[in-house]
Write a structure and sequence with these properties.
Shape: rod-shaped
Oligomer: single chain
Order of helices and strands: HHHEEH
Helix content: over 70%
Number of helices: 4
Structural class: mainly alpha
Distance between the termini: 49 Å
Number of strands: 2
């Protein structure tokens, strides 16, 4: 526990922010992983389900896509926080140089260590989250493909799954082929 406390003291407030955002990102990644596994099990049981159940699966898939967009933003912000920590650490180093000169390397080491620690933490936190986000995005594309093959309609908008006029529900079918499931991220048109 003492070692962890020393690590946070050396890393400064930016390391605390990196840790907090990293925990949030990992929590959301785990949630998306479990949710995609649940959706896959539901899609595997498609024969014999009612239309409402099928449209709800499409709605859950859209929600999963939105959650993965948030994960992508978090994975993009983590290295930027590491860069902010680098700048912060260098500012600490320059303040020491201004006050004491370059004759005391022990004092300079604190700022340089903070700069390196936060840079490393930002990259170590972001890379696995980004990799898992891409894996999950590929899984969601495969789920969407399986839903489309089953004739499951896709909601017109990501944030509003259905538009109702009188008692009818308006949905759109978006075609998706096998190549789209295997290719790198291609934004879907809504």
């Amino acid at each position: 526990m003492r070692l962890l406390q020393n690590l946070f003291v050396e890393g400064g407030p930016v390391l605390v922010a990196i840790t907090f955002l990293s925990v949030m990102a990992w929590t959301l990644v785990c949630h998306c992983w479990l949710r995609s596994a649940w959706l896959q099990r539901q899609i595997d049981r498609l024969p014999g389900q009612s239309g409402l159940d099928l449209s709800m699966l499409a709605w859950h898939t859209s929600g999963l896509e939105q959650a993965l967009r948030v994960v992508a933003v978090m994975a993009s912000v983590l290295p930027m926080l590491g860069l902010l920590g680098t700048v912060w650490g260098m500012l600490v180093t320059f303040e020491v140089i201004q006050q004491y000169g370059t004759g005391q390397p022990r004092l300079l080491a604190r700022g340089i260590g903070q700069a390196l620690l936060t840079t490393q933490a930002g990259l170590w936190a972001a890379l696995p989250v980004l990799g898992l986000q891409h894996i999950l995005l590929s899984r969601v594309r495969c789920l969407r493909r399986d839903l489309n093959r089953s004739g499951i309609p896709r909601p017109l908008r990501g944030d509003q799954a259905f538009e109702t006029s009188s008692n009818a529900v308006t949905l759109a079918i978006v075609p998706m082929d096998k190549q789209a499931c295997l290719s790198p991220y291609v934004p879907t048109q809504l």
